[in-house]
């Protein structure tokens, strides 16, 4: 049983290395893009307030969709990072 576990860990080593590489890329990408996305969120929020005061409802709807898309990207990267962490913990438990 011990030998099988060592063989399985050896076979899963490339998977672990790929997952760690993807995790680092996602984390660095999220950290770098947070500055750009933060400024973009503030700009879109300012435009949103302006369109509400001018009662331009079609532009308000489009800006809400843009804001939701930006939030979706941010949440998506967090979900990907947590799934990679869960996969690594599952592999480590073997």
Task: Walk me through the structure.
With 94 residues, the protein is an all-alpha fold. It has one domain. It is built from two helices and no strands. The longest helix has 52 residues, at 2-53. It is rod-shaped, with a radius of gyration of 21 Å.
N/C terminus separation: 12 Å
Mean pLDDT, to the nearest integer, reads 88
Q: Sheet with the most strands? A: none
Number of strands: 0
**DSSP helix count?**
2
Helix coverage percent: over 70%
pLDDT < 50 runs, ≥5 residues: none
Please trace the helix and strand order, writing H or E for each element: HH
Q: How much of the residues is beta strand, in percent?
A: under 5%
Q: Which properties best describe this structure?
A:
94 residues; single chain; mainly alpha
Short summary:
By secondary structure, the protein is mostly helical.
Write the layout of secondary structure elements.
Blueprint: H1 2-53, H2 57-92
């Amino acid at each position: 049983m011990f030998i099988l576990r060592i063989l399985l860990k050896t076979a899963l080593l490339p998977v672990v290395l790929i997952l760690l590489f993807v995790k680092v890329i996602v984390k660095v990408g999220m950290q770098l893009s947070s500055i750009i996305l933060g400024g973009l969120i503030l700009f879109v929020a300012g435009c949103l307030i302006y369109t509400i005061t001018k009662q331009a409802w079609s532009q308000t709807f489009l800006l809400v969709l843009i804001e939701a898309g930006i939030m979706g990207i941010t949440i998506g990267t967090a979900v990907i990072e947590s799934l990679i962490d869960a996969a690594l913990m599952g592999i480590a438990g073997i």
